[in-house]
User: What shape does this take?
Amino acid sequence: MELYPVFISIYVLLVILVLTLENQKSRFYPFFKAIPALMCAFLLLWSLSTLNGKIQTHLYIIPVALVFGACGDFLLARMTDIRYGLIAFLAGHCIYSFIFISAATGLSLYSLSIAIPVLIYCLFFFRKLPSQNRSLRFPVLIYVTILTCMIITATNLSMVSGNYLFISGGLLFLCSDALLAWDMMVQRVRNSILLTLPLYYSAQLLLTSAIIETVIA
Assistant: This one.
């Protein structure tokens, strides 16, 4: 794909710009934070447009997952109530899960085992959750459940297709969200943004690449 090296270069530069704007507390940060996910959506649409022959209709909802991700990025950066951002990300993960399970045949027990460390972290997280944030337990629990389903289906698709970008992207999503949740709701982590954003943007890019190579190709 001739476009891909150029895309990667622009994507990396944009991530650096987003980190710089966040460090400077720029009012433009929420808007630029959403652009990398929209770039991935564009790359998917471009990949779909290059296909010859009839395209399966359900593939067109894949870019929508990234649009929801972009909305979640903007809402988390712009609003104090994180539930709005969670809803947007939740919708995106539901679409990912649907696409991944549709592209695979069967569900391996190995992929289900990925839920074990997630469960351990959740138990520890909810135990440490301060009383003033206890009202967020139910929304977070729903989000974690859907995120876990996405990671399980991504892991399963990796096992079926042999493309380990799926599980890599899913695990990076998990690490990013786990650190972000701890920083926002339990205890501030110094310079956490320098970890969460690169992990998150890498996850989006890896999943986008995996979808292009395995599901769309």
The chain has a mean pLDDT of 86. The chain has ten helices and no strands. The first helix runs from residue 3 to 23.
